Batch of 2 targets.
Target 1
Amino acid sequence: MAAESRIDPMHQFQIAPLSGDLDGSPFVFTNSALWMLIVLALIWLFMLGGMKRQLVPGRWQVAVEGVTGFITSMLTTNVGPEGRKYVPWVFTVFMFILVANLIGMMPFAVVGAHPFTVTSQFTVTGVMAVISFSIVLLVGFWKHGFHFFSLFIPHGTPKILLPLIFVIELLSFMVRPFSLALRLFVAMIAGHILVEVFGSFVVSGLNAGGIAGPAISLLSFAFIIGVMALELLVCAIQAYVFALLTSLYINDAVNLH
């Protein structure tokens, strides 16, 4: 019985079919797909406020314009005036990651709707990283042709070290999409596991009885509050870091820096 009542911290990341069969059908609607659609719907509703174009903007429009202005400023600072071309993509990944992270933290489970953090899936973060990396490659070769490879040869490199430095720089460049996707994936999955583990300590402490049990539960609950507060901060930081690194990588392709 004790083994059966044990909480599995990885269960929250399991992809479950809502319609169809994961084994028998190529078209399966899963909990991951459902929460992606919810995230996209929330972003669309948020953007409705910025489409009004009122002369005297309301709070909703100011919020939308504030986010778009923030992303535009980031790209202009890191890439230059040409960075405005890439605002749509960087804004898209920033908003998707931010909303998906925050949705995954919401206590919908109290009404029977367990939220699914789609950014805790490496396939999701990997696709976004690959698209960002593809934009960098396309822009780099379109603007500079084969001169784009000069990005992997730092200025002042001794000629005798050119082959070695070129290989090292190329490998570090190729690892970028993997590190970009892994950073977000690990940050999201680690925080959720901590909350689940401390939650199991709360339940176990209450079931244990005595004096030590409630004390452990209370201490674990305090840790949950701290981790949740930290997780809310991480949700915004990870969205910002992904957008910032994407803009820096685009800068490398545009300016060969």
Note: The chain has one domain: 11-255.
Target 2
Amino acid sequence: MTTYIVLLRGINVGGNKVVKMETLRTVLIKAGFADVKSYIQSGNLVLTSNQTARRVGETISSLFPTTFGFESRVSIRNIDEWNCMIAKNPYPEAGANPKSLHAVILDDDPTDAALAEFEAKAGDTESFTLRNRVLYLYTPDGFGTSKLALSLDRVLKVPLTARNWRTVQTLQEMAAAI
């Protein structure tokens, strides 16, 4: 069995695309996943499966329209990839304020032109590093006002989802407890 971190995009935001975590956990267990745990209401899951990450994602994606009446994009990393992402954090200073660092999980690689445009939008205090389809976004003045954060989707043009470093670490702890 492989332990996976599953991130759902755009659920339970502003009262839209409402997903009860208890219902989601139940549906995933019925679909054959084990050790299903959720963290907060924004689509963070830890589970185990003997399926490939691709198959896990396809299965979860297919459950959304029939169960919840809408689609949600699924991003998946196995526990080894997740641990590697944490170990390669280029901003250890964010440990004092874990909400200043976000792991932006990319499902594809952005083009060099997109990355150059993205870099040009950086404010004075913010920066980013791209490693292994993870964009580490450091925003010490706040994610909500970051010029980089505001342009993620529009400029990078790849499927992505972001989690603050506190959530990243919590999901690692949950996975380690399985």
Note: The helical segments are 21-30, 53-68, 79-87, 112-120, 147-156, 165-176.
